[in-house]
Design goal:
By secondary structure, chain A is an all-alpha fold. In chain A, 73% of the residues lie in helices and 1% in strands. In chain A, strand 1 and strand 2 (104-105) form a beta hairpin. In chain A, helix 1 (9-16) runs antiparallel to helix 17, helix 4 crosses helix 9 and helix 16 runs antiparallel to helix 17.
Chain lengths: 332, 332
């Protein structure tokens, strides 16, 4: 993994797919326009121009290119997934009452909740028009299912977040909604438009799904053991926000009665005191749940890499493999 | 129009299509379920069970039946348009900070804004899955375009509502977004799945579009001259909420400098005083804008009825024609 010291895998992907990404950006610009409602491009541009890694459109472009796709629909679908992602960010910020996103004030703060809700709806509708233009019912089916998984996962997260009955299965469903469903749809549609055989399309789905899960578990783990400078988050934010993530779910599953009472008070009831985070970390250490969570993340990353094996040999395949290694490399 | 004294046209439609509407309701029940997120059916049921006239699904069923359609997709599409409508109501209540809808407390009040935003997103995704199941790219194209028109109209309404530069054209675009786009999509898809020729499909679109516009203009007019008991609204609500609707837009277009200053103060700046509503009504009377607005509504209703003329002779055709007459009958 020494090559990572020079260029990160997603940066290498972005360089390799630079001309396609330019077409995606141009399409996004065109499609976020609105003749009479300038608020729409204003709000959208605020988020889109803030950048981010553009991981999701890159995944679609990468999957299509690796599968030998020669047409233009991959550009439309890459813009589609970026619009869906941007729409969910706009709605998430309203739901979370966030004030910052990607180091900038959120749209709901700069404008208002109304703008975030309605512009999000507009981007959903725009993404829907774009995918219809591909004329592929299979693509539409995949993205409709992804949209439902995303929305259901969000509702589930809202209602299950502080509920100690939340199992690892439900956590996984939330994680698929938050991250993996759009990753897997992004890679799968790349194979579908390239008309690859079923096993390869399944492999692309599996790669995106496992990559997304590894990515989100790593994120949740770093919340408890990350380097504040590197992650931009404070250790224990999820604990303070009473979010049940994998390290806590694993500790709750093994808790004694007394420990369970601690979790009920701090997470379910949210009555937190000084020293509670430290005690939570002690309980996680007692049952080795941070290490177990790390092993889960590594397992999903390995699954993502394995899924790639049946796909065509291509320089992009190596980059996607390195990307899966990279999302968990920061856990070592 | 004497038959209306006994049964209203939408009630007659509902009776005629009762077995299909039952299938639509059963499908809605099934598709709003969520294994792990009970909040979804709770919130949805709150709105769906509050009833309303179910005008949009009725329009889809009516169009399909009138066109001789024999399959099951009209039930799916009727559920689709009802899901889209319910989703927009949920988001509208967040945007408008409403406390009441159909005489009951709104979901954002009973639960919270988060639930309204996310359950709305879930219903959009569900509607999208349902329409994909019909396997018709034309249906998908129509509904994707309707979704974009709805969202753009909502943003436009938010930003143009109190802006005196708003023209009748922009008002019409807002009205299409609020009401007519889903009406016209609802009727058009009925003709598309029945595989009717282009002119008939266009006529169905024209009917829904004109019906929706007549309906909304009538609503906006009744805000200034309605019977509070019949409409459930107070005269002048739109004025107090600084919403530019057609009677005011027409008065602003003809205003003297002094009158313009009045509109700037009361609508643009929102600095309203006692007696302002009365003065606004005087200005509308001076230029006859309430009567001109009524003529517009009657014109759109006539257009809706004319559009039906090339469609197959069928008892439902008469009910649709009566429905168009009915939405403006309350203006006489």
């Amino acid at each position: 993994m020494d090559q990572m010291n020079t260029q990160k895998p997603h940066e290498l992907l972005a360089d390799t797919l630079a001309s396609e990404m330019e077409a995606v950006n141009a399409l996004i610009q065109t499609r976020m326009a609105s003749k009479h409602a300038p608020r729409i491009p204003e709000v959208t541009a605020h988020l889109v121009e803030a950048g981010g890694k553009r991981l999701r459109p890159l995944l679609t472009l990468a999957a299509a290119k690796m599968c030998g796709y020669e047409g233009d629909d991959h550009v439309k679908l890459a813009a589609t997934v970026e619009f869906i992602h941007t729409a969910t960010l706009l709605h998430d910020d309203v739901v979370d009452e966030s004030g910052q996103r990607r180091g900038r004030p959120t749209a709901n703060l700069l404008w208002d909740n109304k703008s975030s809700v309605l512009v999000g709806d507009y981007l959903f509708a725009r993404s829907f028009q774009l995918m219809v233009e591909t004329g592929s019912l299979r693509v539409l089916d995949i993205l409709a299912n992804a949209a439902a998984t995303i929305a259901e996962g969000e509702v589930l997260q809202m209602t299950a977040a502080s509920d100690l009955k939340t199992t690892e299965d439900i956590y996984l469903q939330v994680v698929r909604g938050k991250t993996a469903a759009l990753f897997s749809a992004a890679t799968e549609v790349g194979g579908v438009i390239a008309a690859r055989e079923a096993a390869e399309v399944q492999a692309l789905y599996d790669y995106g799904d496992a990559l997304g899960i590894a990515f989100q578990i790593a994120d949740d783990l770093l919340d408890y053991q990350g380097d504040t400078k590197a992650t931009g988050k404070n250790v224990g934010d999820d604990f303070r926000e009473r979010k049940l993530t994998l390290p806590v779910i694993k500790a709750v599953a093994q808790a004694t009665d007394e420990e369970r009472a601690f979790w009920v008070r701090t997470i379910e009831k949210g009555r937190q005191e000084d020293g509670d985070l430290e005690h939570a970390l002690e309980l996680m250490a007692k049952y080795g749940t941070l290490e177990a969570t790390r092993q889960d993340a590594l397992g999903w990353a390995a699954k993502a890499r394995e899924a790639l094996e049946i796909l065509p040999e291509h320089p992009i395949r190596q980059m996607l493999s390195d990307l899966a290694a990279y999302v968990v490399a920061r856990l070592n």
